[in-house]
Write a structure and sequence with these properties.
Elements (H helix, E strand, L loop, with lengths): L1 H19 L5 E5 L9 H14 L5 E4 L7 H10 L4 E4 L1 H7 L15 H10 L2 H9 L4 E8 L5 E4 L15 E3 L2 H10 L4 E2 L5 H7 L4 E4 L1 H7 L7 E4 L6 E7 H5 L3 H35 L3 E2 L6 H10 L2 H4 L2 H8 L4
Parallel strand pairs: 1-2, 1-3, 6-7, 6-8, 9-11
Antiparallel strand pairs: 3-10, 4-10, 5-8, 5-9
Helix pairs in contact: 2-11, 7-12, 9-11
Length: 324
C-alpha cells in the first residue's frame, strides 16, 4: 500500500513538474486582419502559430491594432508584454538607425533579391546590435506581396518626366527626399489620412505595391498604377528580447523553426498573390501603365543619387557592395 502511494506521489510530482515547465502562451500582435487571402502579416502569423501548436504551444493573436498602434505595440514588445509584433519599417527605425539602409528606394527589386541582400550583408546582426538595447530582437521580415510602384489619380505615368510637379503623398522625410529628386512635390501625410488627401487633392498619388492598396480598400480612389519594381515592402518580425531570452534552448529552437516556417509560407504566398493583387486593381478600374524603355534606369539614378541624404555615406558604401 505504501509503495502504491509513493508511486502515485512520484507520478503526480512528475506531471506537475511538466505542467510547470510548459511554455507559456505566445502573444502575437499586428495591425492587419486575420485574412489569409489579402493580409501578408497574417499569412506569416498563421503558419508561425501552426508550427508552435505542433509542440503544444498556444498562440494568442491580437489583430487590427487591438494591442495598440505601431508605437504602442513596439513599446509593449520592448517591455515583454507582447512576445511577437509585426511592425512597419518606421517602427524598426526606432530600434536601429542602420535599418533605414534596407528601405532605400531601388536597393532591391523583389523579395528574392531583398532576402539575398539581408543574408549576405549580415543585416540582422547589424540591426540587432542596436535593437537589443531597447529590448527588441528582429527575427526577419514578412513580405506584403508585389513590388513598389506609383499610384495616382491624375494621368498615366510612363516616364520620369511625367512625375514632374505631381503632389505625391510621402510617408516620411526620406520619401520627401527621393520624390523631390524625381521632380515631384511630395507632402507628408499619415496613412490614415491618405484617402482624404486623395479625395481632396492634397495628394494625387503615393508609392506602394498593389497589395497595400487592395488591403487598405483604396482601389476605387485611384486611377493609374505604374510598376517601378523599386523593391518589396517588408513588414518587420519583432520579438521581445526578454521573452525570447527566458525561453529554454529547446523552446528557442521551436520559435526559430516557427519563424522559418512562417517566412517560407509568406514568401510562397507573396509570389502567388502578386498577380492576384494586380488583377484586383484592374477589376477596380485602375489602369496599369508600364514605364517606357529606359525610364526605370532614370528613376534608379535619381533615387540612388540621394541615398547619402537618407543614410550616412559609409552605410551607402557598405550596402552598395551587395546590390545587383
Amino acid at each position: 500500500m505504501k509503495k502504491t502511494l509513493l508511486a502515485a506521489s512520484v507520478s503526480l510530482a512528475a506531471l506537475s513538474g511538466t505542467a510547470a515547465q510548459a511554455m507559456d502562451d505566445v502573444i502575437v500582435a499586428f495591425a492587419g486582419t486575420e485574412d489569409l487571402q489579402n493580409d501578408a502579416e497574417y499569412v506569416f502569423i498563421h503558419a508561425f502559430a501552426e508550427s508552435l501548436e505542433d509542440h503544444g504551444v498556444n498562440v494568442i493573436v491580437h489583430p487590427s491594432n487591438t494591442m495598440g498602434k505601431e508605437s504602442d505595440r513596439f513599446d509593449q514588445t520592448s517591455q515583454g508584454l507582447i512576445s511577437v509584433n509585426i511592425g512597419n519599417g518606421g517602427s524598426l527605425m526606432k530600434a536601429s538607425k542602420w535599418a533605414s539602409t534596407l528601405f532605400l528606394p531601388f536597393l532591391t527589386s523583389d523579395e528574392a533579391s531583398f532576402d539575398r541582400l539581408v543574408e549576405e550583408s549580415d543585416a540582422l546582426e547589424r540591426i540587432n546590435e542596436e535593437a537589443s538595447r531597447l529590448g527588441i530582437k528582429v527575427a526577419g521580415f514578412a513580405m506584403r506581396g508585389g513590388t513598389l510602384g506609383l499610384f495616382n489619380t491624375q494621368k498615366p505615368v510612363t516616364t520620369l518626366a511625367d512625375v514632374s510637379d505631381m503632389r505625391l503623398r510621402a510617408q516620411n522625410g526620406d520619401q520627401v527626399t527621393f520624390m523631390s529628386e524625381w521632380g515631384a512635390k511630395p507632402t507628408v501625410v499619415s496613412w490614415a489620412e491618405t484617402p482624404n488627401a486623395l479625395q481632396t487633392g492634397v495628394a494625387v498619388g503615393h508609392f506602394n505595391p498593389p497589395s497595400t492598396v487592395v488591403a487598405a480598400g483604396q482601389v476605387e480612389l485611384l486611377d493609374y498604377f505604374t510598376p517601378l519594381d523599386a523593391g518589396p515592402v517588408p513588414k518587420v518580425i519583432m520579438l521581445s528580447d526578454d521573452w525570447y531570452s527566458f525561453l529554454t534552448e529547446e523552446e528557442q529552437v521551436w520559435v526559430d523553426d516557427a519563424i522559418a516556417d512562417g517566412i517560407a509560407v509568406n514568401r510562397a504566398w507573396a509570389l502567388e498573390q502578386a498577380s492576384y493583387f494586380e488583377q484586383k486593381i484592374l477589376e477596380g478600374g485602375v489602369e496599369i501603365t508600364p514605364l517606357a524603355e529606359g525610364e526605370r534606369a532614370k528613376f534608379i539614378e535619381a533615387s540612388r543619387s540621394v541615398w547619402n541624404q537618407i543614410v550616412p555615406q559609409k552605410d551607402v558604401d557598405y550596402i552598395s557592395k551587395f546590390v545587383d
